[in-house]
Amino acid sequence: MSLRDIGLALGVILIWGLNFVAIKWGVDEVSPYMLTALRYLGCALPAVFFVRRPKVSWTLLIAYGTTVGVLQFSFLFSAMKLGMPAGLASLVMQMQVFFTMGLAVLFLGERPPLLRLLGAAIALIGLGTIALEHLGGAVLIPLVMTLSAAFFWASSNIITKRAGRIDMFAFVVWGSLVPPLPMLALALLLEGPAAVTSLAAISPQAIGSIAFIAYGSTLFGYGIWAILLGRYPASLVAPFTLLVPVVGFAAAFVLLGEEMTMLEVIGSLLIFAGLIINVFGPGLLARRRVA
Asked: Structurally, how many domains does the chain consist of?
């Protein structure tokens, strides 16, 4: 993996870590379904009028938009609306790494090297260490909803890999056409007209949150993410997201007042160590064998 692409991946991780704070601010004022609809409406318009549709079937585009937008974020935003802490949500969502690895073995025939599995195991220990601080007090329903969101994120990773080498930015933009109408329908069905009328009193902070979620997290973040998945094996790219909870916990501490304990610090260091092994380990081992 080139240094440039590693830098891009780390930039996406920084944005996605901050994204959980933006989501928390957003769902404090806006229905989670309406927030999802606005997020993808902002992603699709006006970009869809200037970006040519990627050379993939509508079936693949709809599958991507459904898994990453309708399913992933309706579950995640609803969980955070029900009280899932931003820091813990950023942690639990990283189960997508392991879901992605499993799905890549089942559907793509990928076989991750032993060192990547070792790195993932160390990172999983780090995730478990952080979870010790929170899972005992977590509400069951938001936790299950967040795990479901992680599974659908992993599913969208596999769909992205299926798309192959195409214009991935266009893939994200056109895939963003899928979520708005289903999410608007869910908002009206489950929450009534108040889901729409409440937008009249929305604060500048919530508007900024929606803009960050739409343009920073989705258009830039998922656009770059899709490009990286098109260039490299899913088992190499996906583990970068193990750093999201490191950023997420730090941002939640600074901006939301969620405290970070010693176990969370230790767990974050283990996650970083696992990522280093996963990304650099196989290449270093190969060079040593050649030498």
From this structure: 1
